[in-house]
Task: inverse folding
């Protein structure tokens, strides 16, 4: 099913600096495909937003100063399904007059944590804001300075599209348009983990140093292999990026291959083959 689009014309008062004017801005939200799978999405301009915000207000750790500046571009996402969610991928696309389109990507992602501490459990809510996505369940730690910078840039756009691009459940099921290629990223990360596990097993058998191995991987910085326009589905780059990210996790704290093998085996078990 092609996801429907919710369009809201927001009247934003721009204040601060040289701004003191009333601007009309069109904000489009796309999330119907994920709602059908049991993911409730409440945009910042929705009348339900204040009610959805209450658990964040009730959390004494939350810091909400600055929220109103970026609220029109934000979402509160609640897992109303009966399965944990591993990844939520979000995309903010901005169109400016006489400028090329711009976009911001954010991910709520539990796959790179061995204990799955960031997993999005049934009943939990997360706040997603551009450049500040995924603080934790019912937790918002907003940086007022970042909120002000983001609002200043977003308010200059003529049109903004806020898309819940992909949701991947813990069993590998993917819903959403996935224009950002999360399925490609998933498979690239599965391959990177499998290859590193193979190498570490050989290192362990030979009595080698896993730290030296990871330090060597850090010298292999990921490089784009296609034009920027096609980069969202650049599988070789995503493989290299996944391998580099794993090396940064383990290079400074891995004393023996067995420890790394155990952690990576847990990660591997958490990344199921993606399916629709």
Result:
């Amino acid at each position: 099913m092609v996801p429907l689009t919710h369009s809201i014309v927001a009247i934003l008062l721009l204040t601060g600096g040289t701004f003191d004017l009333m601007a009309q801005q069109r904000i489009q939200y796309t999330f119907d495909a994920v709602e059908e799978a049991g993911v409730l999405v409440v945009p910042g301009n929705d009348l339900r937003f204040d009610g959805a915000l209450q658990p964040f207000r009730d959390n004494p750790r939350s810091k909400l100063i600055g929220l109103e500046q970026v609220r029109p571009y934000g979402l509160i996402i609640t897992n109303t399904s009966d399965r944990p969610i591993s990844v939520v991928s979000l995309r903010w696309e901005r169109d400016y007059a006489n400028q090329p389109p711009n976009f911001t990507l954010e991910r709520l992602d539990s796959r790179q944590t061995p204990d799955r501490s960031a997993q999005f459990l049934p009943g939990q809510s997360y706040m997603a804001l551009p450049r500040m996505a995924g603080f934790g369940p019912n937790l918002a730690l907003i940086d007022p300075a970042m909120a002000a910078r983001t609002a200043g840039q977003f308010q200059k756009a003529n049109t903004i599209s806020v898309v819940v691009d992909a949701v991947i459940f813990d069993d590998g099921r993917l819903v959403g348009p996935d224009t950002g290629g999360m399925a490609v990223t998933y498979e690239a990360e599965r391959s990177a983990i499998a290859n590193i596990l193979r190498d570490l097993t050989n290192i362990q058998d030979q009595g080698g140093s896993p730290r030296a191995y990871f330090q060597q991987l850090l010298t292999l910085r990921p490089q784009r292999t296609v034009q920027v326009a096609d980069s969202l589905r650049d599988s070789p780059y995503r493989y290299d990026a996944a391998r580099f990210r794993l090396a940064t996790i383990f290079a400074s704290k891995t004393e023996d291959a067995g420890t790394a093998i155990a952690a990576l085996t847990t990660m591997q078990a958490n990344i199921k083959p993606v399916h629709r």
Summary: The beta strands are 5-16, 19-30, 39-43, 75-79, 85-95, 102-109, 125-128, 159-169, 174-175.
